[in-house]
Amino acid sequence: MVSRLPGAQTHHWDWQFEGSCRTVGSEVFFRPASEGRAEARQREQAAKRVCAGCPVRLECRRYALASREPYGVWGGLTEDERRALLVRREPGDVIPSAA
């Protein structure tokens, strides 16, 4: 018996091709191990400025919340901000798309 794998689901990722972050280094969005609090705040603010004008910010945010992305700034939300949103959710709540 031969089983077939489902086709690629690339449409779920197509929004990433439009992201403003594509022209910015990943170090703006992801914390290096040696980063202090003040540096983290500055880096996160820089990432949020990129996200603020991004045409796919809401899709990015929805992805990060739905997949419980543990690292980085996604859709203008930091790791802690996403964690706080998820903790406040009730079972069955729709994942928020805007803060």
Can you walk me through this structure?
With 99 residues, this protein is mainly α. The protein has a domain at 27-88. The protein is 36% helix and 0% strand. It contains three helices and no strands. It is globular and about 55 Å long. The mean pLDDT is 85. Keywords: 4Fe-4S, Cytoplasm, Disulfide bond, DNA-binding, Iron, Iron-sulfur, Metal-binding, Transcription, Transcription regulation.
- Could you give a short account of the major beta sheet? none
User: How much helical structure, as a percent, in the residues?
Assistant: 25-40%
Strand content: under 5%
User: DSSP helix count?
Assistant: 3
Count of DSSP E strands? Answer: 0
Secondary-structure element pattern, one letter each: HHH
Pick out the low-confidence regions. Answer: none
Structural class: mainly alpha
Q: Any idea what the shape is?
A: globular
Overall mean confidence score, pLDDT: 85
Instruction: Tell me the span between the first and last alpha carbons.
Output: 50 Å
Question: In a nutshell, what does this entry contain?
Answer:
With 99 residues, this protein is mainly α. The chain is built from 3 helices and no strands. Its cofactor is [4Fe-4S] cluster.
Please outline the helices and strands.
Layout: H1 37-52, H2 57-66, H3 79-88
